[in-house]
Amino acid sequence: MSFTAQDVKALRDRTGAGMMECKTALTETGGDQEKAIDLLRTRGAAKAAKRAEREATEGSVGAYIHMGGKIGVMVEVGCETDFVARNDKFQGL
């Protein structure tokens, strides 16, 4: 079964996956949207498992002490690269 560019776009809209990933998934499943979604989920889980093993060696540590000094919190937020750690949005967390 063939599929159109609209089918690829619809799959991208539903999954948020990249265009080529969607096209490959549709090709492998014969154009079946539901099977393609399942295939993309399986591949996404495999990618996530690979990334879960990597260590986040960069990051930031923040501390807060509430007025009166009875309550305090220390938080560590990790990331994989120093580029992210130096980003203003990351530091604003």
Automatic annotation (TrEMBL):
One of its GO terms (cellular component) is cytoplasm. Pfam families: EF_TS. Residues 72-92 form the Translation elongation factor EFTs/EF1B dimerisation domain. The keyword rRNA-binding does not apply. SUPFAM superfamilies: Elongation factor Ts (EF-Ts), dimerisation domain, UBA-like. It is found in: Cytoplasm. Keywords: Elongation factor, Protein biosynthesis. It comes from the Bacteria. Coiled coil: none annotated. Its main location: cytoplasm. GO terms for molecular function: translation elongation factor activity. Belongs to the EF-Ts family. NCBIfam families: tsf. Associates with the EF-Tu.GDP complex and induces the exchange of GDP to GTP. It remains bound to the aminoacyl-tRNA.EF-Tu.GTP complex up to the GTP hydrolysis stage on the ribosome. This is Elongation factor Ts.
